[in-house]
Predict the 3D structure of the following.
Amino acid sequence: HAKAESEVTSLAPESPNREAYYVQSPSRESNSFRSTPIHTPLGSPARASSSSSFKIGSQKSNRRHDGTEFDAIEEETLLEDDDDDTEGRRTRRSCRCYSLAFAVGFLALFSFFALVLFAVSRNQKPIVSMKSIVFDSFVIQAGTDATGVSTDMVTMNSTVKFHFLNKGSFFGVGVTSTPLDLSYSALTLAVGSVDEFYQGRKSGKIVTVAVTGREIPLYGGGADLRSQNGAPVPLTISFTLRSRGYVLGRLVKPKFYNRILCSVIMDPALMNLPLPLGPNCSYN
C-alpha cells in the first residue's frame, strides 16, 4: 500500500493541469472580436495552433485566388470587347472603301463610255440638201412705211424645200433653225420660219418652208428692182440649222450646225415653177 501511494505521488507532478488559452476570431455580425476558450489536446498544442493558422491562411488564399481569377476574366472580357470593336471598325472602314472604289470606278467607266459615244457621234453630222424654190408672186408697188415715208413696197410669196438626213446610227436629233432670209443685196425681202422637229436615227425628211414678205419698204433699192424691167433678179437664201443629238438620254448631247447659203435667180417668166437650188448652195 505504501508502494502505491509513492507511485501516485511520483506520477502527480508529471501530469499537471493544462491551462486554457484564447483565440480571437472576427465576428460576422459586428466589428468586435469574441474570445473563445480553446483547450489544446494533451498531445500537441503546437500542431493544433498550426492547423488553425493554416485554415485561416488558406481561406485568405482562396479569397485572394478567387479575386485574381475574377479580375483576369473581366480583363479578358474587356480585351475581347475591344477586339470586337476594332474588328467592327475595320469591317465598316473596308465597306466604305469598297463603296468609294466602286463609285469612282463606275464614274470613270461611265465617263469613258460617254466620251467614246460623244466622239463617235461627232462623225455622224446631219446632212442638209437644198431642193428647190417656187416663186408664187412678186409685186412692186408704191406705198408708205410705218412712219409715213413714201417708198416702193414689195410683196412676194415663195416656197423653199430642203431635205434633212440624220446619219446617227444610235441617236435621234432635235432640230431648230434661224429664220430663213430671202434677200436682194443686203435688203431682206421675205422671211420664212422653220418649225422645230425631231428626227429619228438613220432617217430623213423633206422640210417645206413658206417664205413671204408683205409690203417690205425698198427705199433706195426699189429703183434697182424697177430698172430691171422684167429681167431676172438675183436673190440670196441664207439660214442656219441647229441640231442636237440625244446620245445617252440627256447626258451626252452633241450639237451640230449647218449654215446654208444659196444663190437663186427670180425670173418673172418662171413663176410658179420649181427652181433647183442644189448646185448653187454652199453648206458650212
